[in-house]
Amino acid sequence: MSIKHAILGFLYQKPRHGYEIKTEFEQMVHKQWPLNTGQIYTTMDRLVRDLLAEPLEGEDQDRKPYKITVKGKKELLDWLLQPVERSLFKDEFYFKLLCAKQIDFEQWQAMIDGQKRLLLMSVLEMTALKNELDMERDAAMILLLEGSLLHLEADIKWLELAESMPSSS
């Protein structure tokens, strides 16, 4: 995920200072993705350097608010319209599986079982979070969780296919 674009999104709504961005970000993702305050300010410095945001003058320097520029708005809107590539070959577990097949890894089933346990724990955690959310207020997060649950379900089915594959090449 692009923290740069998340910050531009918050600035698109209204000028904000770093701590406000951190708080809004954590609310948006329901505290599922911690964001380091230092990362926010480093990113803000780059946004200002690249003319995508600018500080507001005459404000409290401890909580200096920033606003998005015209160039920043264009950057955000262009980014939103860009499709996102998803490469299975860059997925770490898929790569582990390829490496395990290459060396005739004897603990093939243990590797798959461990991955399946991790996925099932993620299903339980996401389902619990989804059940805590309000259908109207948190509709976007619920949609995200539904998509993630579908991906997890597909990954679990894929692991079942991998289990049926002979362990030696």
Please name the defining characteristics of this protein.
two-stranded antiparallel sheet; 7 helices; 169 residues; Arc Repressor Mutant, subunit A; mainly alpha; 2 domains; 64% helix; 2 strands
The CATH superfamily label of the largest domain reads Winged helix-like DNA-binding domain superfamily/Winged helix DNA-binding domain
What is the tally of beta strands?
Answer: 2
CATH topology of the largest domain: Arc Repressor Mutant, subunit A
Proportion of residues in extended strands: under 5%
Shape: elongated
Sheet with most strands: strand arrangement: 1-2
Q: Calculate the mean pLDDT score and round it.
A: 89
Helix content: 55-70%
Largest sheet, strands/sense/barrel: 2 strands, antiparallel
Discrete helix count: 7
Distance between the termini: 37 Å
Q: How large is the radius of gyration?
A: 21 Å
What is the H/E order?
A: HHHEEHHHH
Number of domains: 2
| Class by SSE composition | mainly alpha
Task: Please give the CATH architecture of the largest domain.
Answer: Orthogonal Bundle
CATH class type of the largest domain: Mainly Alpha
Give unreliable regions as ranges. none
Describe this structure in words.
- This protein folds into 2 domains: 3-81, Arc Repressor Mutant, subunit A; 88-164.
- Helices cover 64% and strands 4% of the residues.
- The protein has helices spanning 3-13, 18-28, 37-49, 70-81, 92-102, 108-132, 139-164; strands at residues 53-55, 66-68.
- A two-stranded antiparallel ribbon has the order 1-2.
